[in-house]
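Suppose you are handed only these lines of text.
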Amino acid sequence: MSNAVNKLRAWKRLERHAKKMKKIKMRDLFAEDSERAGKFSLQLESMLFDFSKNLISEKTVLYLLKLAQDRKVSEKIEAMFSGEKINFTENRAVLHTALRNTSNTPVFVDGKDVMPKIKEVLAKMRRFTEDVRLGKILGQTGKKLTNIVNIGIGGSDLGPVMAVEALKRYKSKDINTYFISNIDGTACAEVLNKLDPETTLFIVASKTFTTIETLTNAKTCRKWLVDALGEHAVAKHFVALSTNAEKVKEFGIDTNNMFEFWDFVGGRYSMWSAIGLSIALAVGMDNFEKMLEGAHAMDDHFRHTELKSNLPVMLALISIWNNNFMGWRSQAIIPYDQYLRYLPSYLQQLEMESNGKFVSRQDEFVKYDTGTVIFGGAGTDVQHSFFQMLHQGTTPIPVDFIIPAISHNEIGNHHEILIANVLAQSEALMRGKTVKEAAAELEKAGKSKEEIDLLKKNKSFPGNNPSNTIVVKKIDPYTLGMLVALYEHKVFVQGIIWDINSFDQFGVELGKQMALKILPELQGEDATTSHDSSTASLIRYIKNIRK
Ligand code: G6Q
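From them, the structure of the protein bound to glucose-6-phosphate can be written out as follows.
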């Protein structure tokens, strides 16, 4: 007998409850209860999480909390923090939280406290970043290293890219940061074209140090440097961030120039580790550590707060509600902050790589939906692109709106216009406009009966599109740390509810293996026979065109 999650009584009850809730209009729920916003909001320090604009009632929350209890969410949270090997397919602990454990308490893996090593690397990062920023460490020809190039992909790229952009106002003016991730030669060429080898520091960021994109890009950059400054320059212009000292050495980077991290840090959870070196170089180690403190504050809250008042838990439960019980499988994440414009793609990896899984911890293929299709972009830009579908599409798309109350650039009334827009969007998505209301408006505007008949449906809005709103005071390093940790823990809780392992990523391997097989076929003269007819003819067509 299967003990699958969707067989639980709590799950079944939510399915029945969802059928009833689908018939309700959110605007009526607000009209009936003036306290609704307060009932469905939580706060941590200056962060406000308002989830009242979801199609939920107090019963919904109660039932969701029961599901969380049945799935033993509290126990699982403790298991993660205490270093249990919850990434069971890879037999690893999951301890990105230890990287930002500013509390002076030990964290054990296999009976060994990992905190001294973590602190050692943080201290090494501090020395190095300060020396580079102060010009105590110089390039081969004695010039200051002012151009930092992070070479890495996936988890070794998206966090640093996002955080360096988010914290741009904290960046030193004389440091420029660049990122090369894609194997597409254009990525390398476009960065290198801008740079002077004498002032460039390359950071090769790769947990495994076996990733083909990163190693190929690193080799190209190494050659570019050596061609200009000679082999000796490598020691002064290359550092590595990795768990794999052997491979770092093999590549030709002295392990003294390596910043270590460990298997208990997943790639997409690694911006808090040495992988964050480019962030620390850009904004300084003090700001990097403030980011760790913010994340730690969220960790503490997550670990020690009862489920119903716990921000990441409630964020996860609302998402599960929309996904599994309402049947809305995608989610837009829209920061109304230009500096957070890379946050959606960061969260896209975090959520989709962690929870896009189809095998349960019970070794069964799951019979319910896992994962959420995450997409997004910065508001207000995206209001003029995909918001049409949020307002008048045929399926609701839940949204997370993220707003800082204070901008780093309070110019004229820009920020008030920005805030007015985000609030208007969430209200409009919730309320909608009935056909009758649309007709009345047209009539008021003096339209003829024909015009009203022609337009009233097109000018109506179904509403009832759910959204969360997360307000923070300002995007500073501490708040960014809190925000990212909030989503990391949301993903964790979803993974527990869905009974999947959020910490492996076997799904990315098959395509990689097949690319290795196709590569020699593209390079050689032999006819390709071992593929389906589409792939084979594409190979032939492209080879022909490239001749
Ligand atoms: C993240 C994934 C993946 C990884 C990249 C780069 O969780 O594991 O995105 O970060 O594949 O891997 P390396 O850091 O080993 O080069």
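What can we learn from it? The chain has a mean pLDDT of 96. The first strand starts at residue 41 and ends at 44.
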